[in-house]
Amino acid sequence: MIPDRDRPLWITSDSPVPYPEALARMEEIAEGIRAGTHPETLWLLEHPPLYTAGTSADPRDLTDPDRFPVYTAKRGGQYTYHGPGQRVVYVMLDVAARGRDVRRFVQDLEAWVIAALAEFNVTGLIREGRVGVWVERPEKPRGPGGALREDKIAAIGIRLRKWVSFHGISINVEPDLSHFDGIVPCGIREHGVTSLVDLGLPVTMEDLDLALRRSFGQVFGRSAATG
User: Fold this and answer.
1) 21 is catalytic
2) Long-range Cβ contacts of 199-204 (<8 Å, 24+ apart)
3) What is the pLDDT of residue 188?
4) Can you list the residues of the chain whose pLDDT is less than 50?
5) Beta bridge pairs of residue 50
6) Active-site hit among 23, 70, 186, 196
7) For the CA atoms of the chain, what is the radius of gyration?
8) Are 182 and 67 in contact (CB under 8 A)?
9) For the chain, is the Cβ count within 10 Å smaller at the N or the C terminus?
10) 97-140 confidence digits (pLDDT tens)
11) What is the enclosing helix (H) or strand (E) of 105?
């Protein structure tokens, strides 16, 4: 029996999922949502180390193309890294049923990440012209002109097909941050990348998953079924 489509299904994968396998499953779930045979779904997983190139990726930003496999992703955005210690959440939701407002939908995804981070006393920030969620690093040397250093803690990149979303968000819990060195993350050279553990917080993947579940309803206004 298909669960109520007003109660998104949460799926958690316990071992890293190969990227092609994840893409195929996302496509299958999204098609089911469009057909009305599958509930909206939030899929929590990790990937083996890899780079993905969004639709705006500049080849010059792939600085070490032989380091990890590189996949073309039809989501928005530029280059990003996925790997162990990073929580990826593939977000397959019916955006038509949620108002057909793509800008608002992306803002809701940002607000969701920020609300989850707030449970660990981390202040996530959105910056004009910079995709993703950022944190200030006052303990680090300031940039040119005295600008406060900011590091990226979460990436956001989605695609819509017939008003169903797929791809989604990634939040750095405890990845190997040196793995980001093979790309210019999201094309931004003047700022760095961080994680919850890098910020000095002993947060586990399970801790973050619970925060994401609690904060989802605060932002999207719907409860979630467990699967």
Assistant:
1) no
2) 199/122, 199/135, 199/153, 201/120, 201/122, 203/120, 203/173, 203/174, 204/173
3) 65
4) 1-3, 5, 222-227
5) 82
6) 186
7) 17
8) yes
9) N
10) 989 999 999 999 999 999 999 999 999 999 988 889 999 999 98
11) helix 102-118
